[in-house]
Write a structure and sequence with these properties.
Distance between the termini: 78 Å
Number of helices: 5
Low-confidence stretches: 1-6, 14-29
Shape: globular
Number of domains: 2
Helix content: 10-25%
Radius of gyration: 22 Å
Structural class: alpha+beta
Mean pLDDT: 91
């Protein structure tokens, strides 16, 4: 009997006929009709909003956790504390097709070894013991996103007149998944930055009947020392690194986090502008 060679396509055809496997299930292949052209500025903006929040004007809660590292010149990063928190996004579409993005963010802190929530902190850099305070972002400005790019509302620099968002955002596909890499825009002179990679499914992104993608994210936040760390005047900065997950409601948060928010920051349980 002669030797028969089956390539991938032949295997799928034979396997489907024999009932072993279907082309939809094999190797994660799925027939996905792409309804959004990510090279088109308008479609790119729509895709970004679905990945980051929702096309509907509703709260989009994100649960996150991770570790804060202290970065000193010429030294390896030092794990200082762990964190856990809530970031709620609320995107509101405007008559011109742009979006106003509002946020409500609170973090509390944990010991890097025991993972228990802490009220005091033994600083591994200074050797001092510091009182820990929750980190609540209280900036009153919102973000503006359009086909012309994005900026914070308190940034005096105007957006341009040519569509650029499809050139600023980075999209990567693999199998059933898509990644969006984006940087948060800050006004000039603010010494912090955030780079975020958001993962979702192609099916949810391109489904015209869904308003959001149930995404996970890997944000990296670079910022000055927190005030309660008592590091004023020391060179260096912090790096916050850890995952995030979009959920339907704050009721989907871990109970300890939700109890903390309800007791200490009830006004941070929604990002909807008053």
């Amino acid at each position: 009997m002669g030797k028969t060679t089956l390539n991938r396509r032949h295997f799928l055809q034979v396997g489907a006929a024999a009932g072993w496997v279907t082309p939809v299930a094999a190797w994660g292949e799925q027939a996905i009709k792409k309804t959004l052209d990510l090279k088109d500025p308008g479609d790119c903006l729509t895709a970004m909003v679905k990945m980051r929040a929702s096309l509907e004007a509703v709260d989009s809660p994100n649960w996150y956790f991770g570790t804060i590292y202290g970065v000193l010149p010429g030294q390896a990063p030092v794990p200082m504390v762990d964190y856990e928190g809530s970031e709620i996004d609320y995107y509101e579409r405007q008559a011109d097709g742009s979006y106003r993005a509002y946020g409500a963010t609170v973090s509390f802190f944990r010991d890097t070894v025991t993972r228990k929530r802490i009220d005091v902190f033994d600083n591994p850099i200074t050797g001092k013991r510091n009182e820990v305070r929750p980190n609540s972002i209280s900036v009153k400005a919102h973000y503006i996103y359009s086909i012309y790019g994005g900026k914070r509302s308190d940034d005096d620099r105007p957006l341009g007149t040519m569509p650029v968002i499809h050139k600023q955002l980075k999209w990567t596909e693999s199998g059933d998944y898509i990644w969006l890499n984006t940087r948060r825009p800050y006004p000039a002179g603010i010494a912090m930055g955030e780079d975020q990679t958001i993962q979702g499914t192609l099916r949810e992104l391109h489904d015209p009947n869904t308003s959001k993608v149930y995404a996970t994210a890997s944000p990296t936040y670079i910022a000055p020392w927190l005030s309660w760390m008592d590091m004023k005047g020391r060179p260096g900065h912090t790096v916050w690194a850890g995952p995030a997950r979009k959920v339907d409601s704050v009721e989907d948060y871990p109970r300890e986090l939700l109890n903390f928010l309800e007791k200490h920051f009830p006004h941070k349980l929604t990002a909807k502008p008053s």
